[in-house]
Amino acid sequence: MVTRYACGTTTENKVFALRATDLSIKWVFNAAATHLMDYGTEGCVVDYARNIVICGTEQPTGQDGLWAISTLSGSLAWSHNAGAIVNRPTLNAAGTRLYVGTKSNGVKAYDPTPPGSLLWTYPLVPAATVTRNISSEFRSGSPGADRILVTDSQGVLRAIDDLGSSAALAWQTRGTVGVTTMPVVSPAVGKVYVGLTDGKIHQVNWSTGEDEVAVTDAPSGPLSDPTISLNGEILLLLSGETFRQYLLPWGGTTSPITEVEETPSAPPARLSLDRVAPNPFNPRTQIDYSIPVAGKTSLAVYDVRGHLVARLVDEVLPPGRYRAFWDGRDAHGRAAASGIYIARLQGLRAAATRKLVLAK
């Protein structure tokens, strides 16, 4: 059975485990912290392999700033005085690293296995507050190295390579206006997309950090709390009441991408998994889904025992109709065995499931 986890409020400082069937409380963990990250399900990350949920503290006053809680019992598995954490803790794809950005101590990497040992700290020079915009890791060009993207409060985007017991700067943006959005990566073409203070989305080279081209035209006014995300071949921009979709240049060119929709149609009436095709499939299938209200959205594939196989979508999305793809591989890139799988779509207020059949 899938369980949802939510971080508590500034007054309660609790972590709740809610049963997905009826949202009843499975357990409650009381944190002796000044301020748990109050972002609902966005404030916690679940490590299914170790049966822990990890949350951060924004304003620790002597207490530990990083908490790992057993998903089975709701008891404390481990904790660390990581300082004031300002982003959702992030696991790498292999589940071997936990990354956090802090208010005054740069970026830290932990081993999520108890006792949660600190592996390295990467300070920011000059000192700057790491924003919540620390991305999931992506494989870098260095053998065995994972690369994370960090945006600080001064609008500088950095790519940092995890070398195991230490970290090294791969590149940082230079000569551009400040970064205002969480970076997203298109692995197919080796590009990073970020929103800048000029109101445009820019394409940055994944290997070098070069600002190659502004891929959108300047809007009529400055963007308000902009968010960009990837959905298959579509780049999404959400800024205040503005919502636009752009088609990515899958040929790897640096020419501006094509806007495919200026204003959204009427939002879907309900959350749904609309179409899976082909099904049965080998090795790739397309999953169309609808989101009726803006909010945190997760689309994941599970085996029949309820174990997570692959997470396809895990981000805040505006209302609309979307498309995702599963290539029949798990989170570690290994080919999944033939059999029956379950696609589960979780939105802000509802969930939906569909059966998938991988037939080799």
Give structural notes.
- The protein has 360 residues and is mainly beta.
- It has three domains: 1-85, Thrombin, subunit H, CATH 2.40.10.480; 180-263, Thrombin, subunit H (Beta Barrel); 272-358, Sandwich (Immunoglobulin-like), CATH 2.60.40.4070.
- Helix content is 0%, strand content 47%.
- The protein has strands at 3-7, 14-19, 25-30, 44-47, 52-56, 66-70, 76-80, 90-91, 98-101, 107-110, 118-122, 130-134, 138-139, 146-152, 157-162, 167-172, 184-186, 191-195, 201-205, 211-214, 227-231, 234-239, 242-247, 258-261, 272-277, 285-291, 295-303, 308-317, 320-326, 339-346, 351-358.
- Strands 12, 13, 14, 15 and 16 form a five-stranded antiparallel sheet that branches. A four-stranded antiparallel sheet has the order 4-5-6-7, with no helix packed on it.
- The radius of gyration is 20 Å and the shape is globular.
- Residues 7-11, 37-42, 136-144 and 250-264 have low confidence and may be disordered.
